[in-house]
Amino acid sequence: MSGIVLMECLFDTIADLVFVMPxxxxxxxxxxxxxxxxxxxxxxxxxxxxxxxxxAGALIASFPQCGFSIIASVLYVKGIITRGTLLAVYxxxxxxxxxxxxxxxxxxxxxxxxxxxKILIGxxxxxxxxxxxxxxNVISSKIGEFSQKGCCNHRLKGHVIxxxxxxxxxxxxxxxxxxxxxxxIVNISIAKCGSAEVLGxxxxxxxxxxxxxxxxxxxxPNCAISVALVMLYAKGVIAFCSxxxxxxxxxxLGMWIVIVKNKDVKDSLLLVLSLFLISALSGVILYFI
Length: 289
Fold this sequence. Notes:
13 helices, mainly alpha, globular, single chain
């Protein structure tokens, strides 16, 4: 590949990033203020939701924030919420996908369909699992002290005023770095293949196997995964069914919390396998639809 092509890919990537960063920062500021004023209310709401917990969890998790899957994971390990509620949260959360989609003018229309589909999948799966495989020893206790930290090492409870600005700045810079690296690699790949259609063909865009692979990819516990899925879709490399499958299985750091802190290894493996199978199946169904 010639140096001229590489420079063109670099300039295109920088141009995209310069446009996205201000919108991304604004979105993170808004999210941070909402979390600052309503975090405690969310915890109380989940604690008191009872039989409506899977629905409540799915609705709250659909809000574009990076910490609720972590919160739900801690509550599950403590025995406060059910397995179905945790799966509903995992399937509904989108990590960085929604803020990124909102910052992309050509993609913001996808926000509502993605959120609606993921909530539907989360609610259905959550209630089915609570009916078929209810977890024993779910207790009705107070949540109590919550010290778990989220991405960028920021507080999930006990915010201070400076967090309202410091965390969005740090978060924007980190996500922007992910966007730059992923977009640059995708642009180079498209240039090498000749078009996004050819690259999409090589990545099985028109195959039923792509959403299955996307669901497997989504299991990686890192917010860069949701960024990669959005950018690949925006560039026309993966199909809509694949971004749904990948975002459903991408629970961010939440799944990692369960793997590390859950003493029941079989239960953790069941959660991971269930998340993958539900996400992959959802993507396959959407592929045929």
